[in-house]
Structures are given as structure tokens and as C-alpha cells.
Amino acid sequence: LFTAQNVRDRLTTDAGLDEAVTWCKSTGITKVYIEVFRGGYQAEKETLARARDRFRREGFIACGAVTTTGVGKRKGGYGNVSCYTEKATAEQLEQIFRYAAGLFDVTMIDDFYFTQCECDDCKKAKGDRSWSEFRMALMSQMARDRIIAPARAVNPNAKIILKYPEWYDRFHEQGYDIVAEPAMFDITWIGTETRDPDNQRWGKKPQFGAYWLSLWTAAFSDGKLGGGWYDPYGTTPKTYVEQGRQTILGLCRESMLFCYGSLNPSPRRGGQDETGPDDVEALRRELPQHIALAEFVRGESVRGVGTYKPAHSPAGDDMYVFNFLGMLGIPMTAGLQFPAKAPSLILTRHALADPKSESEAVKAAKRGVPILLTPVLNEALSPELRKQLTAKNVRVLDLKSKDRKRSVYGVLDSVRDLMNLSREEADALRQPLLEPLGITLSAPTRVSLYLYGSKKIVLENFNDESIEAVLRVRGARSYRQALVLPPDAEPKIEARNDQARITIPPRSVVALTVE
To answer: What is the dihedral of CA 265, 209, 481, 423, to 10 degrees?
Structure first.
């Protein structure tokens, strides 16, 4: 993606366009998004059209983009988002999308299409509704009346893409309506920018979250999920390419690199984008394997432990808990409805937003389905329901630390401490959940497991040192290494009968076909 500022600063001359085209070709890019508006700045029509046409002549698909920051009445704060009860905001929003539709058939909205405003006008408009209810209704109305309809009035072929951010547990609070919006917009995208979990400013997001969120977004998008987008901020080359791997493992059809100015800064400067060029070089080296990984999982169904987050469900103290549990070698599916047919279940505080969850959980427990409850959910259940869920196959997640302090990203310190479980503790936690899948895995934390179809398995080691995983698949006769990332990694597989002992190098992926 070229931001509106990248367009202004980097695409106004033949030399700038030459450099951009060369960079894109050398990075495996096939589609470019040329942004019309961001941060109060609207790029010049002549410059946008010239860049669009040049990229198309060079064989690229060229689309538009808009970031709705600095529009109309600005609320300030995170992202400089706007007040959408203000008439000036609505009018400028409409003007921007009319302008974009006159230049591009396809326009993507970056993940700042939300509001946090609590001004007097917003309070009056909200009335007795909750802030979530008010904001979702407001942003849906703006989308219909000020984005989609005006764009199609200018260009009947206009298609609008809505990209969602990665902070899924707060969507409804800021106005994202995952029920109404996918029906209105032509395509959805998702932010898979987990960055570096150890980075103090941009991180604290486990890499597995990009995979889980991609599956969950696909579930509410009804076939409209287009792809995932990630960036270099706060990353290292190793964690940067991990974002790309997770985007592919989450079955996104496309991957977006944000953005040209950060990945190819000119002149190279310090700050948030200083790792961009090194990140790109790492991606270029691994790109053939990314394509091969996409081919490996293409058309496959995902198997795993059933998880779900109903639409608009509050997380409570289970904020982003799926991201962390996935770093413990627990393969997962993700959806919006209770996964009644799942072979095993993880149930979280989110389930309380589903009126059917209690009866479905009891039925699953009676059938002997292995269930793991988070302590947050367990504490919220009635004594009677807890009694009905008292069975050998129902366990409560044991958080070794009871610290309720919220750290960066709104996650409890006790949830983050899951990363510090011993190998023995991690094995004991996951094994009852894997048993119905016909799988046994022994591995330390920060190792993730992904299951595709009936024969394909992927293991990723997020540790900075080699690990040994012991994998057993019921009835397996052979384990064949199908793919390794990065290309110079040298895993070791020792298979005997139905068991494989696999040494996985640091920060590496091993894809297996099991017969």
C-alpha cells in the first residue's frame, strides 16, 4: 500500500514511479493499493491517476484506499478519529469516497473506521443506548449513506473493502458491527499485524493471534474475506515474516504489505520504520516458501479444538485469551456460534453473550466431550451450572499466577504467564483436548500446531532456540516433510511406527504430510 503521503512524496515524478515499480516487482507484489486520503490530506487527482495508470501498464492490479483519520470534526486520541454525529464529518466522508470512486473501482478502508467520541452531541444522540449500540448503529448508517451509496452513484462498478483491526475484543465498543457490515461491504480484510510480542511499544501480541483472527473474520464475513495485512512496526525480520506465515496459515487469500514509505524509507531514517528494509529482505528470501505454504493449505478445511466468540461479545478478563492459548500447541477452529460438533472445546467469557451456550455446554459435557473452561468463565457461571459441568472431561484452566493486573493491550498478567508453563504443564494442559483428534503432542510453549484436512500438519517454533517436539498421530504409517520455512532451516525428523520426533530450528515452520 502507498499511503496518501507516499503518493505525494514518492510518486509524483517519473524517477519516483520507476523506483516504486522496481521495488514492487522485486518484492513479489502483484497488486497495489494507492491511497486517496489519510490524516486530513487528500492526494492530487492527477498524481493518483498517473500512478494508477503506470502500475497498470506494468502489469499490476491497481486499487484505491482511504484512511478515515483527520476527517471533519476530529476527536483526537488514538488514530485521530472523528466525531460522526457532526455534519461536517459526514459531508467530508462522502466527498472523499466520491472522489475515490471516480478514480478506482475498488477502494479499501483502513482500520480506523471507528469512533471513540463522547462529546455532548454524541451523548444526546446516544440516548438510552449503550455506547456500543450507538456507535455500531452510527457507523453502519455512515457506511450506507456516506460511503457506499455515494461511491456507487459516481461509479456503479465501485466496490468498497472494509479492513478490520486486530483488536477483535473491542470491535463493538468502537462501532464495528460484524453482523451488519459484511452484508453491506463487498469484501472484508483483517489486520494480521501481531508485530513482535516482546516489543514494548508495538508488541505484546502473540503471533498465533493472526491465525485465529483470520479464521474468526472468515466466519463472520460469509465468504467475503479477501486477505490479511501486516506492517513492520516494532518488528525484527524474524517476527515480520512470522506475520506473513500466520496470515497464510489462517487461509487468507491475499497478503498486504503496509506500507511503501515504511518498508522502503527514503532517506532511511530511525524510528518506528527503521527495520522496514531488513524486514523486506527477509520476506524476499522466504517468499517462494510463502507461496508454497499457501499452496499446501489451499482448499483444506481447518481441524482443531472448537473455540468461538459470539458477535459483540464482551471479553471481560478473557481479553485476547485465544492468542495465548494457541501458543501452547493447541490447534483451533474459530467461529461465532457454539461449535456443537467440535471434538473438544475451549469455552471463554465470550460465551456468556450466547443464550444457547449453557445448554450446549451441558450437552457436550454429558457426551464426554473434553472441555476447558477459563477461570473467568467458570467464576461467572451460576452454582447450578457449575455443578452440571462437574465431570472428568471438564477442566478449568489453571492460571499459575492469580494476578488480575491488566498489562499492555488490556491482557491480564496471569494470562501472559501461560507462556511460562513448563513443558510438562503444557503437555498436560493440551493432551485431553488433542485426544479426540487422534493426536498426541509433547512440546514446550511458544510452539503452535495447525491441522488441515485429514493428512496435513504444520508446526511452528516461535522460540529463539531449537526445540524437540514429539508428535503421534493415531494410525499414521509415515511422516513426510513437505515444506520448511525459512529455506535454510534444517529440521530433523525421526519417525517410528505412528510417532515422529521432530527437531525444529529456532523461528521455523515444518509442514508435514501424514499417511
So the answer is: 120
